[in-house]
Amino acid sequence: MVQKILNTLVGAKYISILRAWVPNLVGWGTVGGVGLVHFTDWRLILDYVPYINGKFVKEE
Fold first, then answer.
1. Tens of pLDDT along the chain (60 residues)?
2. What is the distance between the alpha carbons of residues 51 and 46, in angstroms, rounded to a whole number?
3. Is the dihedral of CA 45, 49, 51, 57 positive or negative?
4. How many other C-beta atoms lie within 10 A of the C-beta of residue 40?
5. pTM over the 0.70 mark
6. From its phi and psi, is residue 40 left (phi > 0), alpha (psi between -120 and 50) or beta?
7. How many CA atoms lie within 13 A of 54 on its CB side?
């Protein structure tokens, strides 16, 4: 059903192009996310990850 709706809205040609690009986009998105965490304040972002959050408890 979703395939039929996408074919009418976008077209089969562009759907096949998108399917070819999805693995590339996922890879570059992952690299961009890791780069963002690396070059910004990594603790600010990783405080929201439950497993990692417990390792860096602030002692006040």
1. 877 887 888 888 888 898 999 999 999 999 999 998 888 877 777 777 777 666 667 766
2. 9
3. positive
4. 10
5. no
6. beta
7. 2
